[in-house]
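Reply to dn_fold:

You asked what the input looked like. This is it:
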Amino acid sequence: MIERIRQKNTYIIGPNIKRLRKERGLKSVDLIAKLQLKGYDISADHYSKIEKCRNNPTVELIILLKEIFNCTYDDFFIL
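and this is what came back:
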């Protein structure tokens, strides 16, 4: 079973992922390639929906992004 992070009324994870990606000078296609190299199957469309808060990220995705961005989990939940 895939565990997704459920966001009720506050959609902060997507914008924070986008912020972290841009702070590191990565284009979304570069980040998607890094995720795919780590074995995470994600399309550009699905990733775009996560950044735009149309889809919730999985726990596995957050763990991988933490590694790629070299950040803390708190960075994904900052308002």
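The CA atoms of residues 10 and 23 lie 22 Å apart.
Hope that clears it up.
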